[in-house]
Write a structure and sequence with these properties.
The structure is a homodimer of 190-residue chains. The first copy, chain A, is α/β, with parallel strands linked by helices and 190 residues long. Chain A has a single domain, classed as Rossmann fold. Chain A is 29% helix and 35% strand. Chain A has 5 helices and 11 strands; from the N terminus they run H-E-E-E-H-E-H-E-E-E-E-H-E-H-E-E. Chain A has helices spanning 3-11, 32-46, 61-72, 131-142, 161-167, and strands at residues 13-15, 19-21, 29-30, 53-57, 76-82, 91-98, 103-110, 119-127, 146-156, 172-180, 187-188. In chain A, strands 6-7-5-4-8-9-10-11 form an 8-stranded mixed sheet, with helices on both faces. A two-stranded antiparallel sheet of chain A has the order 1-2. In chain A, strand 4 (53-57), helix 3 (61-72) and strand 5 form a beta-alpha-beta unit. In chain A, helix 2 (32-46) crosses helix 3. Chain A is globular, with a radius of gyration of 16 Å. The A-B interface holds A 23-25, 28-33, 35-36, 58-59, 62-63, 65-67, 69-70, 73-78, 80, 109-110, 112-113 and B 23-25, 28-33, 35-36, 58-59, 62-63, 65-67, 69-70, 73-78, 80, 109-110, 112-113. Strand 5 of chain A pairs antiparallel with strand 3 of chain B, so a sheet runs across the interface.
C-alpha cells in the first residue's frame, strides 16, 4: 500500500452513490507534502517523455498540476470552465459532461499557450468516467500537441474512464485505483 | 526592480479599462519557478507568524497558495465559488462582488477545516478592490481564526483594496504594486 492509499483509508469518507470524499487532503483542504510526493512519483514515471507542458483543469487539478510542473521545470496550463461554449478564434474549447455535477460545461484554453511542438502531460486529481481527461485530450489534439500520458491521483476503477483511456492506448498512470466502495469499504486494485 | 516586476514588464499586456493580462505566467499558463520564488518571499516575510493554514480562493489563487503552504508545511484551504448563497450548517459563506466579472458570487468553506486555533495567511494572485480578500477575511473571522496577514502577487495600487486593508490594520505584503497602467505603460510603486 502506498502513501496515497494509506491516506485515503485514513481520511477518506465514503458517501452514497459511490462518492469518495477526500476534501480533507486533496480537493478543498490540500496537504502540500502529500501532493508533493505524488508529483515526484509522476515525474519518475514520465521522466523520459520530454514533457514541455503540464495540462490540467481548474480548480482542484491545479495544486497537483503546479507541483508536477515544478518537477519537470515546465509551465502548467489549466483549462478554465465556462458555462457557455465561447466561440472565440483565440480559444480551443471542448464540451465536457460532469459526473459530479450532472451537467455539461465547456473547457477553454488560450491558443497562445499550446502548440504542435508541445509534448503534454495531462494531470488531474480524480478520474471517474474520464470526461475531463477526454476534454483535455481533445484540446491537446486540436493544438496538434503530442500527448505523453495522463497522471491521476485517484482513479475510480469501477467507473469507465481508466478502461477507456487504456484501451485507446494512452499511457495512464493512476497513483491509486479504487476497485470498490461497496458497503462503505474502500478496496484498492492490486 | 524584483523578479516579478521584471516578468510583468516583459510578459504583461495592458488592455483597456485598466486590465493587466498576465495569463502567460500567472493565471492561465503558470510558471512554477516564478511562483515558487514568490512563495519563498512570502515565507520570508511571514516566517515569524506561526501560520497554521494558508487560505485562498479558487482558481488562480491555488497555484501560489499550494507553494506557500509547502513553504510553511501547513495545509492549503481554498474557498470555492458558488452561484447561490448555500445555506448549510457545515459551511461558512461570504458574499463577494467580483470586479473582473461584474457580478456577485458566494465563497464557501467547510467549517471542518478552519477553527479558532488557526493562524491564517490569506494568499491570492491579484488584489484590486479587495473584495475577494475581504471575503476570505470574513470567513476567517466567522471561524474565530487569527489572521496573520495577506500575501499578494500583484496589487493594483490605483484601486482601493490595498489602501482599505492597510487602513484596517492588516499586514499586507504585495510582491508587486502597480501604480498606474495609463497610456498602456506599466508603472510600479517605488
Amino acid at each position: 500500500m502506498n502513501v496515497l492509499e494509506e491516506r485515503i483509508l485514513c481520511d477518506g469518507v465514503v458517501r452514497p452513490n459511490n462518492i469518495l470524499k477526500v476534501d480533507s487532503f486533496l480537493n478543498h483542504q490540500i496537504d502540500p507534502m502529500l501532493i508533493g510526493q505524488l508529483a515526484v512519483e509522476l515525474k519518475e514515471y514520465f521522466k523520459d517523455e520530454n514533457i514541455t507542458k503540464v495540462l490540467t483543469i481548474e480548480a482542484s487539478g491545479i495544486a497537483l498540476g503546479i507541483l508536477v510542473a515544478q518537477q519537470f521545470n515546465v509551465p502548467l496550463l489549466f483549462a478554465k470552465k465556462a458555462k457557455s461554449a465561447n466561440v472565440d478564434a483565440d480559444l480551443y474549447t471542448s464540451k465536457v459532461k460532469s459526473y459530479t455535477y450532472n451537467k455539461d460545461y465547456s473547457m477553454i484554453v488560450s491558443k497562445k499557450y499550446i502548440h504542435e511542438e508541445d509534448t503534454v502531460l495531462i494531470v488531474d486529481d480524480f478520474l471517474a468516467e474520464g470526461n475531463a481527461a477526454y476534454g483535455l485530450i481533445d484540446i491537446a489534439k486540436q493544438a496538434g500537441a503530442k500527448i505523453a500520458g495522463i497522471g491521476i491521483a485517484i482513479e475510480k476503477g469501477f467507473q469507465e474512464g481508466g478502461k477507456r483511456l487504456r484501451e485507446d492506448g494512452y499511457d495512464l498512470k493512476s497513483l491509486s485505483i479504487i476497485e470498490s466502495l461497496e458497503d462503505n469499504k474502500i478496496l484498492f486494485r492490486k
